[in-house]
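Subject: mismatched residue count in predicted assembly?

I count 1392 residues in my input, but I want to confirm that the predicted structure covers every chain. Input:
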Amino acid sequence: MRREVVETRAVPAGGRRPAAARADDPFRRRVVIEGVSPEVDGGRFPAKATLGEDLVVEADIFTDGTDAIGAVLRFRKAGEEQWHETRMEPLDNDRWRGTFPIEELAAYRFSLEAWIDDFLTWRRDLGRRQEAGQDLTLEYQVGARIIEEAAGRASGKTETALLTAAARLSGRLRGRELWRLALDEHLAALMSAHPDRTRSTLYERDLQVRVDPPRAGFGSWYEMFPRSAQAVEDAGRGKDGGAPKGSVRHGTFRDVEARLPYLAVMGFDVLYLPPIHPIGRTRRKGKNNAAEAGAREPGSPWAIGSEEGGHKAVHPQLGTLEEFRSLVGVAREKHGIEVALDLAYQCSPDHPYLREHPEWFRLLPDGNIRHAENPPKKYEDIYPFDFNTPDREGLWLELKSIVDYWIEQGVRIFRVDNPHTKPFAFWEWLIGEVKQSHPEVIFLAEAFTRPKVMYRLAKCGFCQSYTYFAWKNTRAELMEYMTELTQTPVRDFFRPNFWPNTPDIVTEYLQQGGRAAFITRLVLAATLSSNYGIYGPAFELMENRPRERGSEEYLDSEKYEMKRWDTGRADSLREVISSINAARRENSALQTNRGLRFHQVSNEHIVCFSKQTHDARSVVVVAVNLDYRHPQSGWVELPVAGWDIEAGEKYQMHDVLTGARYTWSGSRNFVLLDPAVMPAHVFVPRRQTSSGREFE
Amino acid sequence: MRREVVETRAVPAGGRRPAAARADDPFRRRVVIEGVSPEVDGGRFPAKATLGEDLVVEADIFTDGTDAIGAVLRFRKAGEEQWHETRMEPLDNDRWRGTFPIEELAAYRFSLEAWIDDFLTWRRDLGRRQEAGQDLTLEYQVGARIIEEAAGRASGKTETALLTAAARLSGRLRGRELWRLALDEHLAALMSAHPDRTRSTLYERDLQVRVDPPRAGFGSWYEMFPRSAQAVEDAGRGKDGGAPKGSVRHGTFRDVEARLPYLAVMGFDVLYLPPIHPIGRTRRKGKNNAAEAGAREPGSPWAIGSEEGGHKAVHPQLGTLEEFRSLVGVAREKHGIEVALDLAYQCSPDHPYLREHPEWFRLLPDGNIRHAENPPKKYEDIYPFDFNTPDREGLWLELKSIVDYWIEQGVRIFRVDNPHTKPFAFWEWLIGEVKQSHPEVIFLAEAFTRPKVMYRLAKCGFCQSYTYFAWKNTRAELMEYMTELTQTPVRDFFRPNFWPNTPDIVTEYLQQGGRAAFITRLVLAATLSSNYGIYGPAFELMENRPRERGSEEYLDSEKYEMKRWDTGRADSLREVISSINAARRENSALQTNRGLRFHQVSNEHIVCFSKQTHDARSVVVVAVNLDYRHPQSGWVELPVAGWDIEAGEKYQMHDVLTGARYTWSGSRNFVLLDPAVMPAHVFVPRRQTSSGREFE
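Triage response: the counts match. Full output below for your records.
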């Protein structure tokens, strides 16, 4: 619900009252403000918000005794002098809430101020005394004095009005007239505009908010390898049209550009490409991660750098820089798709940096550079940067210049490879610097690591983060994890991006479950999380063969070879994906994680949840059969009262996956989900009018 | 478990290293320290500890990548210059723990420091490489360099030893010898003593700990009204021996002193007295809270002040100041019982303060003083202080002088009446000031109010607090509340004191349940909480008649009259109370709330829990039938593996309430609790030796 800014009071930055009034004894400030949210690590890190949303601020505000309180939320943009204020409203249990609109892609500051409101106290107590039949004579006089004091804080007509009210309350009016005057709404409004704030409590710190563009809060991502982007019918022909049928020619930026309509029809917003830079030849990995590549094998895109260039160059087989810029432009202008690059801070043995800056790498005692490893695992085709280098400043500046370079080429989104192997301070600095000059840039952290490390990266500035989603398969696991992500303070700094598969991960669930499992995981990712992504075409073509039993690596992984993807295959999941992405675009409830709730289902194989916007104007109900083998059915309990549906009232559930419509009644309804047909419902509830016609 | 201080390093207060080393680039500090506990509101308030315990400090400590970490906990007493250090140990999930002993009744400060440990990293990785059969030649040289650098931080024999080790590692020893040298424990110890801390992370703040005496953490309290302290056989005789049999003479401090052996036998540590000051006559309350008292009615002890004096005077019918001091001294010296006074900051209409300091009270427009109220409720016999008085400083100093005065008379414990109607800032100042000069003083907050207010008072310094215990009756309620109190950060600043009854509260459960309910509530209070109290003799005599149906007030409450208590009555609960208090004294597990866990019982009417000390040397298992009407039975599941008991092994459960001994076996055992006999077990598990004899 969008709160209007009720009072915009332009007060000097810092918002302090004149020295004389503030010289008042600090021990007189009785109101307590604590438990402020969003507040990340006591204010050490900014909270996150997205452009266009209202930031919801809450706090515990209370005082000794029973006096009533007034409270405001103060806010300003980081560069602004003036603070703005908006009133906060009490919830229950001493919790207060206020909101302010995030209208610019800039950093914001906010704080809170609260005070004892004698008038509200008096008026409330007057009501209680009156109900108990007590004599109010003296109380009216007490009120008159409070109003008189307020008049001293006002001027002009307001001052006059207040003095008049005070005089009347002290006068000889009849009880009924005094009572009406005391409860007069206009008087209350005037008093509300002139509270005594000389002994207010100001929250002890200003808190920061960092604003990201809307795409950071909501987006459907598609990852593909340009190397395999050629249309399958071209796959057998070389550039000259005559290569042998068996080989696959290397895909190009132009091929990717030709793929854009396919992605746009499926409804994706972001196209994420693995690294597009030249690939090293020394110790290049071969098919299925073989230690050495054959002459024609392309190697891993993450082994960046060769004599053809490093992180600021494009792989010559992908095309030219101009072709890349064209891809970015066409994607954005024509299809509304943002191209995201992979930022992988590491080098192949052939990267120019090794010649130019050997000091940026760790040396072994024999003078060789230490390759990447996590003992005993060795990654011989990769050299990591040594962040302990004496030339720390030079290294950091160069690494930032890579980001700056690609921003100049039009890129606005970076998916960052393994950020947890680089210092937190580096990311905090890098992202902070980039956001200063380019606040619209988005950084996604791909850190599959320990939870506190993942959360720290998010605090340091990563706009989105990969998660443990792929391994949350049972209802209990999903509920527990979503609770952690959406009901704890994690939600103030960590934006999840749910990927059912990645080039490194095809889960056992997908390996075992086939089509039903793919659809199940797609629906879960795309409805539980406002940000999600798939690695395709592996996903829509349901590729699920592991490299070996018990592994999550793909067999014949695209990381090491060009693939032939027959995207036109009849059984492709492209239509389901289209339906889901359309549902996400058409139902704003799916564009945030705030309104997520789980619902009771009598069958533990079925998970049921809903999302709704704050005002409940958009509601989506999802039921998913987690058992990819067997049909499952059960009774679902929905909190329909909150959606203005009466017990026993009929309404329609429109399934946007299949187009089917079901008539439901009241809170308890039956679902049957056959994985062989469609393992999930994605319902938009629709009311029925008295004429029988539907409306939203 | 008491951790020894492994390293006591005397470093200057503030603990900063010399400027030269610290001039090092702050961006090089890779280790993160967050989530420190205990930390109350970001360090705004001190955490609590009791003298003699070890303070357990935990934090999340981690870095990017996989390097190993070293961490120390730094601590010092508030007035000390020197910091001491003790090593922290890793738990799991990046959580680290350290402890330091609280050896003085003084404020402490602590902080944390952590760094990358290259040697530990090298040694760990060496192990992993060796297990994978990798060649270690270069790795030994890497280790040699690390050791050589450490030698530069050492001197004398240590330096020599390290240089020697480094040289040997770089030399031509055989693999087996190099391996043994690399893993040498002595080398590891030397390296551990000389870590490179030039790029360590120092936690961003020093945290405070306020220390209270042991009695703040563990005590059994007994509240009684001196006015009724005369022995029942005396009740009918006046001081001169000749008063009519029907009336009760006013009890005195001497009578209370005569009552001490009774309390000592029951095993109480604290004797808490309602206010002992003169009681006002104007609008004195009569029997059962009648608006006006008859001529001989004593009034409420909380209506403090008359022409006979105020908060620094004693009620003449109780005796003299000397008699009070004698009571305090005899209680402490002879019986080990501490006398606690009631600190009630309010005045009767007759209190001297009203004449001396009318400006400390709120005036109505007609010039009269506003009595206490919570509209529409009126308390006409009480005038509250107006903390908004212009003479705030004078008021605060006078109120503190009351505490100082009674401290001079020997009092060390104050139970504070309704602190939530006085400003938080006042309590924070008062308690802080008193603790500076008298760190052994204990303040108990009697604030039956909203939870956040109760917690704020504890943060502000109250050493103990009344709780919602009286209204937690079902198993679910008890478990939920105990979890809140013992498993959340609340435990770092809030010490519960559980009272099954007070002069204001006789619960429906006690009204309905009679003897069984009284025993149940006694056992729950006395075993769930290390601090508990009862209002007697009402409790042991099972007085449970309410003033009217649906009320929690006592009928003929002792607040308004002298009572005849026949403490020798045969059915008194004094023996059960003795047994429970003895169990508390003899089993250290019951002297803390830290080791509390709930256990599965197949019958929801039975709640089962255990407490144990950190080293599990003291274990107590409690099973309580919450149904005061019917016998209940069921199967209890205990985690006996943690107590070194094997599956199927027999052991004894010694019930300290009845003396009965039961032979139990393994984790799953049967209990039957008949409320008509004894509704609870309080078990001390005892092993059986192979000879069949028991030992602890």
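The CA atoms of residues 51 and 191 of chain B lie 35 Å apart. Marking this ticket as 'not a bug'.
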